[in-house]
Write a structure and sequence with these properties.
Elements (H helix, E strand, L loop, with lengths): L13 H8 L7 E5 L2 E2 L5 E13 L5 E12 L11 H12 L9 E7 L6 E5 L3 E3 L2 E8 L5 H15 L13
Parallel strand pairs: 1-8, 4-5
Antiparallel strand pairs: 1-2, 3-4, 5-6, 6-8, 7-8
Amino acid sequence: MDAIDKTHSSDISLGHLLDVLAVAPDAPLVFSYEGTAVRPGYHVTEVKAGQFSALDCGANPEAWSEIFVQLWDIDEDGRTHMPASKFSAIIRKVSDHVQLEPSAKLTFEVSDGERPMALYCAAAPRLIAGTFEVALAARPASCKPRDRWLAEEQEKSSCCAPATNSSKCCG
C-alpha cells in the first residue's frame, strides 16, 4: 500500500504538540473551537490510536496512523485550564499502555456532553501572554485524488523561476 502524507493545512502531530508544550510546562493549555475557548474544567476523557487502511474514491490504497484525543468541554468546580504538563502527563500515561506514534495525524473529538461529538484538526500551539492556545478547526472531508492533483499543479506553478531568470524549471 502506498501511504500518503496529505493532511489538512492546520494538522499537527502529537509529537509536535508535546515538543512545543515542553517549552512552558506550567502554562495553561486552552483549546478553542468554533470561535470559543474550551471551559476551564475540560477533561481529556480518552486517547486512542489507530492504524487505518482504506481505498479512496479513485481506487487508490491509503494507509495512515491517527491519534484521537477526546475533550469533554465542561465547567467543573471552579477549576482553571489544565497546565501543559498535565496534558503531557496524560499522554505519557496513555503511552504506557497504548502505542502512540509521535508522527501520527492528530484528531480532536470535542463535545460538551450535550451536542454530538465533532472532529477537529489542530493548529500548532501558540504561547500568548503565558498561555498555550491551540486553535481547533473542523476536519473537512476531502477527495484524496483531487488533493494530490491540486498539490501537483501547485508545485508545477510555483517551482519554476520567473522567465527573466535563467534558472531551469524543476518540473
